[in-house]
Every structure is written in C-alpha cells, then in structure tokens.
Description:
The chain is mostly helical and 640 residues long. It is built from 35 helices and two strands.
Amino acid sequence: MTVDSLGELEVSSPSVPSGSDADHRKLLLHIAVSCPANAGEIARRLGYPETVIRRAIDALIGDGIVHRHEGTLRTTAASRLLAEADPAEIQEIHELVLAELETELPRPTTVLALVESGCRDTALLHHAVRTVNEHPEGGVVLGALTSLAHSHGYDDDGVCLLRASDAARRGHTDLVLLLAEGLVTANSAETRRSAALLAAGAHVQSARLERAAALYRHVRESSISHEGAWGVLTALGRGDLADARRWREEMGEDALTSHGAGLIDLADGLLQSIEGAGAVDRLARSLSALSPFASDVVLPDTPAALAAIVAMSQGEPATAEVLLDRALRARLGGEAGRQRHLLLAAWAHMVQGRLTATDRRLDSLGSAETLGDREQVFYWGLRAGLARRRSTPQEIRTAWREFRDRTLGFNLSLYELLPLGEMMVVAAPLHDGDRLDPMVTEALAILDGLGHPASWSVPLHWSGVQAAFQSEDPAALLPHANALATAASYSSYAAILARAGRVWLDVLRREGDLDAVELSVRELAAAGQVWDASRLASQAALQHPDRDGTLAMMQLAREVSKGHQQTRPTAPGATMLTARELEVARLVLEGHGYRAIGEQLFISPKTVEHHVARIRNRLGASSRGELLEMLHDIVTSVDG
C-alpha cells in the first residue's frame, strides 16, 4: 500500500473495491478483522503515517462503506471481504493483531471480529477468556468465547474452568468462587477436582483458610497428589502442625515433573520454617522449579512470597528482596502474584528505612481497591508504617481507620503477622490497641499451636515491645520481652532484638550506656532493621545529658541510615513504558537479540520487535544509540 494511492483513491459507491482498488480493500480488511478504535491503530500496525490512513478512512466513511459504532470502526462489507480474501492474508492480519494484544486488554469488539473472521489461535482463546472476565455483561462475546473454546475441545464446564483459572491468576477471588463453586459437584471427577482446587485457592488468597482446608480435604478423598502442599499451607496457617505433617506424608517423596518437585519443596520449606533450619533455601528451590511456568500456573500463594515473609521474620529483608525480584521478573503467579510480590518488596524496603523505594513499589500496584482481603491488610499496614516513620499524624490515623475497618470479620492466619505487628505499634499511641486484642490473641494461639517458632513469632514480639514503649505500659512489655528472651537461646535474630529491647528501655529511663546503644544500633542495622536502628540512636541522642554523647548518637543515626532515605529522580519517560516494555528494555540493555528475548519472555521474536518499535516511538529516540542511552536511564531509575 502506497501513501499516494491511499490519498488519491475515491469510492463512488458503497460496494467493495476490487482490482485496482486493492489498497483500499486491504484497509477495509484490517477494519473487518479487528474493528480498530481509530486510524492511529491501523497506522501503527502497517507502518504508515496516521494522517494518510485517516484521510482514507474519512473517504470510506463518506461513501458509507465504513462507519463508527461504540468507539470502533466497522465496515458494512465485512462478510463479503472475509469470504473473498486469501486465507493467508487474513492469517497475517490475525498475527499482527494478536501481537498487539500481548500488551493491552483487547476490546470485546476486537475479540468478536477475530473469532468471526476465523481466528482459532490458542492465544486468542486466552485473550477471549480475559475479555469476558473483564466485561461479564457482554453476552455476545461470551458466545464467541464458547464457540472458540468448543473448537479447542472444551465443553461448557471447561469454559467455566478457563474463566476461573484466569480470574485466579488476576486475583479476582469473587469471580473465581462464582464460577468454580458451582462445578464442585459436576459429573466429571476431573472437573470437580479442578473446581475445588480453584475455589480453595481463592479462599487462601482471601485468608479464609478454614474454608480452603475443607475443600482441600474434599479433593483429598479422591486424589490430590502434590497439590497437598496447599493442605500443608492451610494447616500451618491455622496453627495445626499435626495436620500439616499428615498432608506432607501423603504427598510422598517422588515427583516426575518440575511442578510437582516445586510443590514438594514448598511444603518442606514451610515445615522447616516451623521445625528446623534452611526454610528460605528450600522455598527458593521451589521458586526455581515453579518459575518456568510463570503466569500459566495458578498458585494460591507463591514460594517467593512465603520465603520473603520467613526471611524478613529472620532479619533478612535483603534476601527477601532478591527472591521477590526473581518472582516479579518471572511473572510468577500472574497479576495476583505480582500484587503480592510488590507489597512484600515494599515491606522489605520499609523496614530498612528505604521509604522512597517503598513508595515506588506501592505506586506500581495501581488502585488499592483491586486488592483482595489478604493484600489489603498488607497495603494498609504499609501505609501506616510509612506514616509512622515519617511522623505524619493525619496519615497515621487514616491508615489505622482503614486497617481497622477492612479487618472486621477478617480471619487472621500465620501469614499476616507482619502487618498485625506494625498496627500494634501504630495503635498504641492512639490509645486504641484494645481494638487489636482479639487479633493478637488469635495470632498467639496460632503460634502456640505450632510451638511458637522463632521464624514467625519474633517480629510480632518485637512489635509488642515497641507498642509497649509507645503506650508506656510496662505490663504490656513483659510478655513480649520474655518471649524474645526465650527465643534468643536458639535464634540469633531474637537475641539481637532482645538486647535492643533492654537497651531501648534503659534509654527511655535515661540510663542508657552509649557503648551498649552503639552495639545494639549496629546489630539492628546489620539484621535489616535499619529504621529501628536509626530511631534507637536518635532516641539516645535526645535522652543523653552530655552534648558529646548527643552528637555521637546523632552521627551514628546518620551513619546507619545513610543512603536509605535519598530520593532517586525518575528518568524522563519511565512512566511511559508498560511493565512488559520495561522487561523487554532490560533484556535489550543486556545485549540479547529478539529471538533470545522472546524465548525468555515466552513471546515471538516478531512481538519483541513490535515492543521495541513502540518503545522507540514513545521515547522519540532518533537512533539505536540514543534509544539505549534513554533505556539505561529509565531502567536504572525504576530499579533504583
């Protein structure tokens, strides 16, 4: 198609151009196959100036062949065009449109047009599932999905399971339950099993572990195999160590697939976090085994998230960051996994005092309203924690109210102790700690049921110590201080916190020894508790009567927090790129070619080329050298 021919062609009647009008016919065929939103969409696809395409479309609209309907372009000649077109030509357009859909949610009209034009690609099936889930009111598109799915061998129950799986990967737990619970009693045993696992996973993501456990037991009656790892997770989450051991025993030791091996490692890692050492390493092995499945596997929780919680609970937030970044790059767990990993990465930044990095992670989440119940608890715990560290009283009160309101009726589990501990500290100076008493009691009961393991209990007790300091309540301090002292005999992290608690109490009594303060400050910083370390030094500076001691403590506070509070400026253009485009940009900077990038991201080289072209156009780079320089600035800014 030439620029001149598009600009000069005229249509004298609303019939399909043919012969010498082949260029117009090609344009109409693109409209028939994809129902584009505007001329720009076709121009990007074909590589022509938008003004040229727009002029041609305006002419076709004037002649009645093209019209606008509900925000898209349509042609009255669609049926005849598709009937007369060369199948190879239609296939080429299908591939171009499907490449575009890798980066954006397709419109219902586009999905419908692709199906009606004969596209049966597996990628379209997945796009259609997502589109129907995002637009459940579209009965026509659901019909198109059903027809497409039937051509791939799925029955109506299979279509429901496809939709439930997609909803699970995106964290839409209500939709999962709506679709899956009706199939738990289906005629097919495999359908019943798949539906029960999906529904149970949705309950895990909503922290309703009792209901999840009931469904896992239902599946267990027939066959559950390595999926028993989720039985281990729910049992430990409720504080039932004996049941967790039974689930693990039933799983066996052999796994013929990486997926099975990953789930065995996940179960063993969780049990080791209760009973022994090496939990983070074992969960990291699970992450390596499951990562190749990326977003294709439905995970109620991820080994990266669980490993991160354990690592932070052991004073290793930097290790948590490494594992979470691996999971984010692999897109493990789909959108639901991304949200969970971003929240936990933000938590790791926060405890280290890197508040600007915490902000960036939270901003990456988008709207908090899209988060499920479990993630809402972490989100508002983070908001409260940031406000506390920045000493912004109004934001503290807002976050506390949101947390309090959103946890009404919430079923606390082992895996939400970090935000609970943060809110204990936040509530204390507000004199509203009694609102948390039922949740704290529930948390202690769960920990007692597991033998009070240090890998999970220590952060909660440290928060209890801090809350007691805030409320000036010695009676509230003792149980938590004693628990830390007991755990100190077998946990180095607990020993560090126990010493820090005693030193902190001495500082508040104006009895602090500067050498002891310095030792505790450095120990806290080395254990990842950089913000607490800086705060202890600052508190000692305020309380010390001697000017030299005050200056020494102030210098120590600056030293341990150096570099954590600095704001890194965002490079121009960073917010213009999508998450997938940033992934492509990182790999381009590492020197990978289109084929190698495609293999790592599980997309075609042609799609990679399409991404790079869009990035270059968005940034306005005039050469490859300029593009690489701009991408370096952007990736450095985003990754911090």
